[in-house]
Design the sequence.
């Protein structure tokens, strides 16, 4: 009896080890078709779904978002801002998304004329306090629009500042969606505006000298300078795309603003560089189209 009992216990131990060994194999994914493998796949986190109907909007950026030179020479006009303005002829993004009454109480504009990407973290900190459902970003033109091409913001610094801006937002408003507009095609703005004598006089006051300085010069040096600025704008847009792609709640416009062909109707008739009311309306259209698009 004693001898048979030891043999029975040994057989049971071997059988148990075999069963547990098989289960352990499946638990670490050895059997891709097993139950535990399915559970592991179900546990994998998925990216948040983009909300095409955000309940509030905050805007950060530069003079374009402030409606600069769209109403009065060398002055902001936030009422015609593409992002948060109230002017009916613009039909701003906030109005399109929220309706006119709600936009008046649930949209905020923290953009500052002349701001560069280095200023964006501070603006994001202000916006985050409101816990907005959506934050719009349009910045980078002033990083290229310096006194000279040599003074433009280095691409590495631009990247660091943009990342810091998103981190600043995420600390207070982790679920806010972010729409990032590409930097406009500054060279096209030069080519459109240089035909207007008044515009060129305003440019001499210091508007984007790296691109607009010596507006009529077409020599090799001037062409090389403008091409250098243009390449930097393209580099900035590449940074915006790449950094935004690393944030599950960020959506880049795919270069839509950069590709938009601003004509004389879309440019301020004060400086022939900043968007007019018509141009602000076109920016609102682009943003709305990108934000309400399904998928990523």
Sequence:
């Amino acid at each position: 009896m004693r001898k048979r009992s030891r043999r029975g216990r040994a057989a049971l131990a071997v059988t148990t080890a075999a069963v547990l060994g098989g289960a352990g194999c499946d638990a670490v994914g050895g059997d891709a078709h097993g139950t535990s493998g399915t559970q592991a796949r179900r546990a994998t986190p998925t990216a948040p779904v983009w909300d095409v109907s955000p309940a509030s909007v905050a805007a950060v950026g530069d003079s374009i978002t402030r409606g600069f030179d769209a109403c009065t020479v060398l002055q902001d006009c936030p009422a015609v801002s593409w992002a948060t303005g109230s002017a009916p002829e613009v039909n701003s993004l906030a109005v399109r998304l929220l309706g006119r009454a709600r936009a008046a109480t649930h949209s905020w504009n923290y953009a500052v004329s002349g701001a560069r990407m280095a200023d964006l973290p501070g603006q994001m900190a202000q916006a985050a306090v409101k816990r907005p459902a959506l934050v719009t970003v349009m910045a980078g033109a002033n990083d290229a629009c310096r006194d000279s091409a040599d003074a433009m913001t280095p691409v590495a610094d631009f990247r660091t500042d943009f990342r810091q801006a998103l981190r600043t937002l995420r600390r207070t408003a982790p679920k806010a969606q972010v729409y990032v507009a590409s930097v406009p095609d500054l060279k096209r703005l030069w080519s459109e505006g240089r035909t207007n004598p008044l515009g060129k006089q305003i440019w001499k006051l210091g508007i984007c000298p790296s691109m607009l300085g010596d507006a009529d010069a077409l020599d090799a040096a001037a062409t090389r300078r403008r091409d250098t600025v243009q390449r930097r704008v393209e580099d900035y847009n590449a940074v915006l795309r790449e950094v935004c792609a690393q944030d599950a709640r960020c959506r880049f416009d795919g270069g839509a603003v950069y590709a938009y062909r601003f004509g004389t109707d879309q440019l301020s008739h004060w400086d022939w560089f900043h968007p007019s009311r018509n141009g602000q309306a076109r920016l609102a259209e682009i943003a709305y189209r990108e934000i309400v698009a399904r998928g990523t």
